[in-house]
Amino acid sequence: MPLQYNEFYNEQTGLTVGLKKKLFSKKSEYQLVEVFETDTWGNLMTIDGMVMLSERDEFVYHEMLSHVAMFTHPEPKRVLIIGGGDGGTAREVLKHPSVEQVDMVEIDETVVEASKLHFPGVGDFDNPKLNVKFEDGIEFVKNTAASYDVIIIDGSDPIGPAVGLFERDFLKTCFDALADNGVLTSQTESPWVESYHPSMKKVFTSLGDLFPITKMYLSYIPLYPAGMWSMACATKKESPLSDEVLKRASSNTYLLNSLDYYNPEVHRGAFALPNFVKRIIED
Amino acid sequence: MPLQYNEFYNEQTGLTVGLKKKLFSKKSEYQLVEVFETDTWGNLMTIDGMVMLSERDEFVYHEMLSHVAMFTHPEPKRVLIIGGGDGGTAREVLKHPSVEQVDMVEIDETVVEASKLHFPGVGDFDNPKLNVKFEDGIEFVKNTAASYDVIIIDGSDPIGPAVGLFERDFLKTCFDALADNGVLTSQTESPWVESYHPSMKKVFTSLGDLFPITKMYLSYIPLYPAGMWSMACATKKESPLSDEVLKRASSNTYLLNSLDYYNPEVHRGAFALPNFVKRIIED
User: Fold this and answer.
1) Can you list the domains of chain B with their CATH numbers?
2) pTM, two decimal places
3) Residues of A with CB below 8 A from B60's CB?
4) Contact yes or no for B14 and A15 at CB 8 A
5) Is B169 annotated in the active site?
6) Residue A1 has pLDDT above 60, yes or no
7) Which is more confident, B233 or A160?
8) Over chain B, what HEC string results?
């Protein structure tokens, strides 16, 4: 059955999404940012043709990238987000009452522009605790004098402007910018896409060398390749699976009730890796 | 970008798979069974256009449907599989050394024919412990005098011949055909596909009424809708999350080393349900 022109087809994901219309298309200095109205996933943002988020499934990615980090730290006050221009990660981080300041460093203002226009439920851009900076996150971290409790690397795939986010030198500067009990999370691609295995292996090897504790965890993100997405959690002190962390993750009922994916059991269960996934990052 | 005729497109999944050629196509008394050679997933079987398995991802479904049941029972000897014509579930069940007899009741001989021809690595059809019967599984369970330790319901989606596998009357006959400490698992569709929520709710309500313990668990199956697949585990006695079960699941190193997905941590982690999934089966 031949597809129609009004269907988005992502070669990397094998995913086809029915489109109603194109809402936004802008070639920035860095990349092509587009937004489509879809049949069943709400609005969909792509960058250089790769799926970034849809209104219907964005909660999974943003909750899992944020809350695993935020509950692993005992009292996160200062948070740095590298990338994250759609605003969803900042929105989740800002739900934590301990937070005093969130610095979001997005290289491409076009992503924020598209999100504000077409994903009104995703960002919390008017929150006074949020500082959005349009600059290169790699340079920012290298030069910052600040000390963060949590750093979240919310970049796109390791081709194009996000390639440096998978490099050891950058991860070392993140380590240095974290306070003594700092926690880092990063998106680290789909275990099903073999062409990304070298990047995944590199990230986990680098984090494992730099941090006392580094673990991979997984979540189900339908519009990302193969629906299985990996993330890294690296910490200077506490394991994301310690009893303390799991107890903390259960404590804020008000926050937990606002979530659609994350809960303390999911936090713990996400770190259980199928054998074929373990093999990707083992030596 | 318009797709080509040589691409399989599943409207339900939104999945597009590049096809090299059609290897098998037969309209049986019950359904249309087809096999395609694909670009990157090995051979792919569809029934009435719905994805059943690919060579590359079948291990996830078959390991998770089988081993969760098999390790939850203390010493499974007699196993009944309803459906499962591709042979993958029986292959996994037969890895357990306690097994003496596996009855596989598949309504449609065409599925076994297609599997033997085009999925030579999936079935273990020559195993002397395996009895394949071509008849209606619902009638078989109703009339059997046998008592099984484990029953695995490995049917297709609840439209067409598999619709009865989601009915309470059938599940009651399964309960009756199970021994005192019997365990049942069943595939129960994707939580992301809203049109299946009523079927899912019905299965879990019926199992919950019949069995002392009923739980949902999840696994990542890339070619199934949205990549997230749910399964039910219902038991007469022991919880699939008891310390005994998890200890047993760790004990057979030889078996575990042969697997690509299942391990004791994954067994436990699979029962951690995201909030939006819990809501589907809660009242």
Assistant:
1) 7-54 (2.30.140.10), 58-281 (3.40.50.150)
2) 0.95
3) 274
4) yes
5) no
6) no
7) B233
8) CCCCCCEEEECCCCEEEEEEEEEEEEECCCCEEEEEEECCCCEEEEECCEEEEECCCHHHHHHHHHHHHHHHCCCCCEEEEEECCCCHHHHHHCCCCCCCEEEEECCCHHHHHHHHHHCCCCCCCCCCCEEEECCCHHHHHHHCCCCEEEEEEECCCCCHHHHHHHCHHHHHHHHHHEEEEEEEEEECCCCCCHHHHHHHHHHHHHHHHHCCEEEEEEEECCCCHHHEEEEEEEECCCCCCCHHHHHHHHHCHHHHHCCCCCCHHHHHHCCCCCHHHHHHHCC
